[in-house]
Fold:
Amino acid sequence: MNIENIHVSRKLIGVAVIWNKKGQILISRRLPNTFMGGLWEFPGGKVESGETVEECIQREISEELGINIEVVEQLITINHNYNNLYVSLNVHQCLHIGGIPQPLECDEVRWVNLYELDDFAFPEANTQIIYLLQENGIWQQVKCKGGDG
Ligand SMILES: Nc1nc2c([nH]c(=O)n2[C@H]2C[C@H](O)[C@@H](COP(=O)(O)OP(=O)(O)OP(=O)(O)O)O2)c(=O)[nH]1
Ligand SMILES: [Mg+2]
Structure:
């Protein structure tokens, strides 16, 4: 095969693990008829040029869910290859500050606890994120009860 025919896409993705005061995490379901449609994920999206990952997360969460969050700290970066799509998931721990999550760009949103995460189908790259979250427990008692949600 000619080298020019090989197309590899790379995407840097800002991903938010958003916690409420009850120790629940917000998950959203990808729209049907899209890449990995129907699977559940942590909200987020592609980092645009000129923005930091934190800015990307703030923007995506406001666009996708219409809520306010505080981006608190980085959890992990997962590099994963879906055939010819390389994604680098830059995952951050976040607190829900206010607003009721709306499924503005997804099929459905839900608050779930750490153990309920096992009941939903996530993309392959999420396995390690979920394992780490469950290992860590309720994120330092929801970062000492910050946030407002
Ligand atoms: N947001 C998010 N994306 C994830 C997760 N796990 C996972 O593999 N992904 C993958 C799916 C997509 O290939 C990519 C996210 O891209 P996207 O298509 O939702 O992002 P976007 O809305 O900014 O995309 P675009 O149309 O602007 O290219 O990362 C996850 O937990 N959250
Ligand atoms: Mg997205």
Remarks:
- The radius of gyration is 15 Å.
- The chain has one domain: 18-145.
- The CA atoms of residues 82 and 117 lie 22 Å apart.
- The mean pLDDT is 94.
